[in-house]
Every structure is written in C-alpha cells, then in structure tokens.
C-alpha cells in the first residue's frame, strides 16, 4: 500500500480542522467524473450518448453548505473551475432561472466570493488563475497530492450527489458496472445535461435546508440561540453574528473578473493579442495608438479573455475594463477559440515551410523572366540624344498609344459581339461612319515623323 493511500485511509488523525470565523471565509472546490451517462441535448431522439459529465462542487467550510455547482462535458480545467466559482459567487435565483426553475434568495442565499479558496494545485497554480488573486482578492490554498481528505467536505458532497440523487436516475454508474454480467449503464442513458441540472438544483436546496449537518459545526453561541441543525440556518446565523466580509458583486462584474488573464500590446494599427488584431475605441481616443505619444515604444496592457472565444477581449485600464473587438484583419478567426487559432496558424506555418522550395523557384523564375524582358527591350531600342528625349511631347506620344488601346478594345468588342450574336461579318454602315482608315494612316504618319519611315530604315 502506498504511503499517500495509507495516510488518507488508515493513519490516525488528531481531529483538528481548520475552523473559519464565519461564512464565506473558506470555500473548498473539487471536481470528479459524474457517475451517470447522459445523452446529447441536441438529439431529439435521445440516441446520442455523450458520456459522463464532469461535476464541480463548491462547499463553504463554516456551514458545510453547498454554495456552487457546475456540470460540464469538458474535462476538469481552469476554465471549468472558473465557471464553477462564478456559480458559487453569483445569485442562485438567476442561475435556477436559466434552467426554467423558480426559487427565492432565501432558498439558496449563498452568493458571495470567498476570502480563501482551497483546491487542487493543477488548476490553481497556473498563470490563468491570477485573476482570482488580483481582481477578487482571494487567497488560494492547495491540498496535498493524492490526499482527497484534505478537501473532505467537498469530497463528501459527491457522495451526497451519488447516494441521494444520481443513484435513482437512469444511466447511473454502479461501482461494479465493469464486472462480468453487470448491466452497461450506457444502455439506460436518457437524460441530458440541462435535465441533470434541473434535478441537482432542487436536491442541493433540500440538502442545505433540510438535511441534518454535522454537530461539530455548532458552538456554544449557536446552541444558546437554538440554531437548527441545517446548513442554511448555520450560514444565516453566521452572517448575522460572525465577521462576514462577503461582498455581493454584479454577475457581469464577477464573470469578467473571473476571465483568464493575458497581456496585449498596443500599436498604431490597433491592439495585438495572441497573434490577432483588435480595435479598441478607448486606446484610440486616449492616444495610446499614436506613435508621437508613445515615442515608438510599445504600450502593454493586461487583458481579460475567454479561451473559447476570440471575438472580444477586455483591457485592464485605469478606467476599468475596456472592450476590444476582433478587427477585419483577423476576421477569418471570428467565432473560433484561441486554441483553434493556435492550431491553424501552426498548420499554415508548417505549410509555408513545405512550400518554401517551390516559392523560391517561382521567385527566381520571375526574376529571370523580368531580366530577359528588359534585356530584349533594351536591345531593340534606338538611343536618341538626351536633348531630343527631353524635348519630346509626352502628351502627344501618350495620345497615340491611348488611341491604339482604344482601337484594340473596339476590335475586341466586335469579335465578342460577332461571336455572341452569330454575326458572320460586320454589317456596312451607310451613314455617320468615321473613316477609320484615315485615322490609322494619321497614326502611322505621326510614328514615321517621330522615328522615321520604316521604309527608309530598310533602305
């Protein structure tokens, strides 16, 4: 048996735990594959199985109340954790409304950011989680590797989901489902992800408000005040009688502050971020794109962005978050994720490397053909005295060539219309016809006067 498993499952414990001063001080967060198979919400026939969802749970340590839930088909990651925290910090009334459920604030009153967050190293140590610390002022603490007991409360919440809810739903994954003769849970899968939410929300409300909580939560003061042994009642008592620094923020502010963090540079052409160009009215109006103001030095700003959408980013400025939209220069990536952009640009770069020999050969051929053209033209040219070149009338010379171009287009029109309308030959025009032969003769006379008669040259 490994030492980490022994420490978690068998080693004696002192019984000491971290005791917060009040509700909203410490939250625990964790994720696990849900023990249920779901079908696609886009398939009306419910035949497309999408697998087991990832379930994030967020628990308040002071009251043991479940303060947030997030269910997704994505694997565990910072992006998924960010949405779980958004759910934990936001109003549950609007959250339930998204799934067609009507509840009140008193049904699920937990809707504030915490002061400390206890979670896994993998998701909270990346640079992508800096927004939690810098914008929301949350202190991040980490559990030990392979020690789920460090997050005992949130780990226990998954047992609540399985034993009291999921086990009664079709598609539930039994512990022995892989043993020989056991029924495959995929055969019973019928619920969609939104439908799972519509069962989880009422259950969590029931769990917080009516299921008995641990007696270890209770202090002498709670006992004197006859606080019921329910998680919601412990939370509400703590809000009233204990230090409570929970500050409600608008959902818009919460969501933007939880976005991933990056850095963009500002240039005369606009804002450049992750190899894409953006337009920002704020940087333009405030002169940050002016070369004279920046003295040709690149200005940089922290930005907030969603990895799944390139369409807009948000610059962190002294005037708050300022929106920037994807420019036309990068419009081919509209609606894509930044990961998709990275893959596509890498693919294009590799393609350029593959085609480099062919491109070089084409450029050399173009250069060689140009040299031959110029050399042939120079060999056919009669060099005139400099004084004669400078005294030529370019306007007259230009007019002659323009007339020649126009005559070519007239002939092209005649050829095309004869072909289009089946005209064997151009009909005679009895009246109003210009004498083209005289015009052509005049053109030849002018050329002879300028360069001399071709007959004289031949002689």
Mean pLDDT: 85
Helix count?
A: 17
- The number of strands is 13
- Helical fraction equals 40-55%
Number of domains: 2
Distance between the termini: 111 Å
Structural class determined from secondary elements = alpha+beta
Tertiary shape: elongated
Question: What CATH first level of the largest domain would be assigned?
Answer: Alpha Beta
Element string (H = helix, E = strand): HEEEEEHHEHHEHHHHHEEEHHEEEHHHHH
Low-confidence blocks of residues:
4-16
Kindly report the name of the CATH homologous superfamily of the largest domain.
Ribonuclease H-like superfamily/Ribonuclease H
Radius of gyration: 38 Å
Strand content: 15-25%
CATH topology heading of the largest domain: Nucleotidyltransferase, domain 5
What's the architecture of the largest domain in CATH terms? 2-Layer Sandwich
Largest sheet entry? 6 strands, antiparallel, barrel
Biggest sheet, spatial arrangement of strands: 8-9-10-13-12-11
Structural description of this entry:
The protein has helices at residues 3-9, 78-89, 92-97, 121-124, 130-134, 152-164, 193-210, 220-224, 231-241, 251-257, 281-285, 291-294, 338-380, 386-390, 394-421, 436-451, 454-458; strands at residues 26-33, 38-39, 49-51, 54-60, 66-72, 116-119, 139-142, 260-267, 270-273, 276-279, 299-305, 312-317, 320-326. Strand 11 and strand 12 form a beta hairpin. 42% of the residues lie in helices and 15% in strands. The model is unreliable at 4-16 (pLDDT under 50). With 459 residues, it is of the alpha+beta class. The longest helix has 43 residues, at 338-380.
């Amino acid at each position: 048996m490994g030492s980490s498993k022994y420490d978690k499952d068998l080693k004696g414990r002192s019984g000491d735990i971290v005791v917060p001063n009040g509700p909203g001080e410490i939250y625990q967060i964790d994720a696990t594959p849900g023990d249920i198979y779901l079908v696609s919400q886009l398939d009306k026939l419910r035949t497309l199985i999408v697998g087991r969802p990832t379930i994030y749970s967020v628990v308040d340590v002071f009251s043991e109340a479940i303060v947030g839930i997030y269910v997704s088909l994505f694997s565990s990651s910072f992006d998924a954790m960010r949405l779980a925290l958004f759910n934990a910090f936001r109003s549950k009334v609007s959250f339930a409304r998204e799934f067609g459920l009507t509840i009140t604030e008193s049904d699920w009153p937990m809707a504030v950011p915490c002061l400390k967050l206890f979670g896994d190293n993998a998701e909270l140590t990346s640079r992508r989680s800096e927004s939690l610390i810098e914008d929301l002022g949350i202190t991040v603490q980490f559990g030990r590797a392979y020690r789920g007991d460090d997050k005992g409360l949130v780990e226990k919440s998954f047992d609540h989901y399985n034993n009291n809810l999921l086990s009664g739903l079709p598609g539930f994954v039994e512990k022995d489902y892989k043993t020989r003769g056991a029924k495959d849970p995929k055969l019973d899968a019928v619920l969609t992800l939104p439908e799972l939410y519509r069962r989880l929300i009422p259950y969590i409300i029931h769990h917080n408000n009516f299921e008995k909580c641990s007696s270890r939560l209770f202090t002498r003061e709670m006992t004197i005040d006859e606080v019921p042994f329910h998680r919601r009642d412990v939370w509400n008592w703590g809000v009233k009688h204990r230090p409570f620094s929970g500050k409600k923020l608008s959902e818009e502010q919460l969501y933007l502050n939880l976005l991933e963090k990056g850095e963009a540079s500002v240039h005369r052409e606009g804002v450049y971020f992750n190899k894409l160009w953006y337009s920002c009215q704020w940087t333009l109006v405030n002169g940050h794109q002016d070369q004279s103001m920046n003295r040709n030095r690149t200005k940089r700003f922290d930005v907030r962005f969603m990895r799944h959408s390139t369409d807009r980013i948000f610059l962190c400025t002294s005037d708050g978050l300022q929106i920037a939209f994807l420019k036309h220069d990068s419009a081919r990536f509209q609606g894509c994720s930044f990961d998709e952009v990275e893959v596509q640009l890498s693919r294009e770069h590799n393609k350029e490397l593959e085609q480099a020999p062919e491109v070089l050969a084409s450029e050399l051929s173009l250069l060689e053909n140009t040299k031959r053209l110029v050399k042939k033209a120079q060999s056919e040219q009669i060099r005139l005295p400099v004084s004669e070149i400078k005294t030529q009338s370019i306007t007259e010379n230009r007019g002659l060539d323009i007339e020649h171009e126009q005559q070519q287009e007239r002939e092209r029109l005649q050829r095309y219309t004869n072909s289009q309308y089946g005209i064997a030959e151009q009909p005679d025009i009895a009246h109003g016809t210009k004498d083209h032969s005289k015009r052509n003769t005049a053109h030849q006379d002018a050329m002879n006067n300028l360069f001399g008669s071709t007959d004289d040259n031949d002689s």
